Amino acid sequence: MRHWVLITGCSTGIGRALVPLCRLAGWGVVATARRMEALADLPLGEDLRVLALDVTDAASIAAAVEACAELRLKALVNNAGYGQVGPLELLRTDELRAQFETNVIGLQMVTNAFLPLLRRERGARILQVASMLGRLSIPLAGAYNASKHAVVALAESLRLEVGREVAVVLVEPGAIRTAFRDTLAQRWGDLPERGRGTRWEKILARHMAVRKEQADRYAMDAESCARRIVNALNAAVPPRRVVIGHDARWVGKLKALLPAVWWEWLLRRAYRLG
C-alpha cells in the first residue's frame, strides 16, 4: 500500500538528492532520467523503480505512464531541466526553442500525462521546480529566465484549474551547487566564437569563471534543497510556494523595494555590462 512519487531529472543534482531522501521518508520512488545508465548506481529495493524518460518525447512519456499504471502514484516532481546561457542577441532560435521544449513544454507534457494517475489518490500533489529566476531576470540567461517565468505561470494557472483535486506546489530555489552548473559550460557550444570581436567577448570570458566561484562559495547544496522539497511532499497541507535559499528570499525582496533604475544599475555593474 506504499505511495509513490515520480521524479524527473534524477541523473544529478536536486533530482538525484531527492531519491534517497524520499525513500527514507517512506515513499516509493520512480526515478527517471533520459539515460538508464545515469541511474545504474542507485541502491536497489522494493521501494525503487527506475525508468528512462525523455520529457521532450511523447512516446517516452506514454511508456512511463504505462509503467506506473499499477502504482499508487501520489506525487510528481517535475525537476528535469537545464540552463541555456548567452546574451539574447547571440542566441540562435533553435537554442531558445530547445530551452522551452525541455523546461516548459516537456514539463507540461509530463504533468498532463500523469494527471489521471494522480487523481486516483486523495491528497495527491504536483511539485513544479522553477527558480528564483522565474520571478526576476538576470543578464546572460534570458532564455532560462523566460522558461522559468513560464513555469511559474503554468503552475499558478494549473493550481486554479485542478488544485482542488491535485495540489500544485511551486518550488523556487536560488543558486544550488550541482552538476547543473557544469552543464552550463556544455551549453556554450560555439557561443564564444559568435561573440568574438564584439563587446561580448570579454564579458563571456569572465562570466563562467566568476559565476562558478560565486556558486561554490554562496550556493546551497543539492541535498539541503531536496530536504525542503521532501517537507512539501510530506506536508499535511501542501504549500502553494516553497522558496529555497537566502538568495531566493532576499533578492526578490530587494528587487521589489528598489526603484527599477537602481536595480538595473546593480545588475549591469555585477555583470560588468557598462
Task: Describe the structure concisely.
The chain has 274 residues and is α/β, with parallel strands linked by helices. The protein is built from ten helices and nine strands. Helix content is 50%, strand content 16%.
Notable characteristics:
50% helix; Rossmann fold; seven-stranded parallel sheet; globular; alpha/beta; single chain; 274 residues; 10 helices
Written description of the protein model:
The mean pLDDT is 93. The protein has one domain (3-249): 3-Layer(aba) Sandwich (Rossmann fold), CATH 3.40.50. It contains 10 helices and 9 strands. The relative contact order is 0.13. With 274 residues, it is α/β, with parallel strands linked by helices.
Q: How do the helices and strands line up, and which of them pair or pack?
A:
Blueprint: E1 3-7, H1 13-24, E2 28-33, E3 48-52, H2 58-67, E4 72-78, H3 93-118, E5 125-129, H4 142-162, E6 167-173, E7 176-177, H5 180-186, H6 191-195, H7 200-218, E8 220-221, H8 222-234, E9 241-244, H9 246-257, H10 260-270
Parallel strand pairs: 1-2, 1-4, 2-3, 4-5, 5-6, 6-9, 7-8
Helix pairs in contact: 1-8, 2-3, 3-4
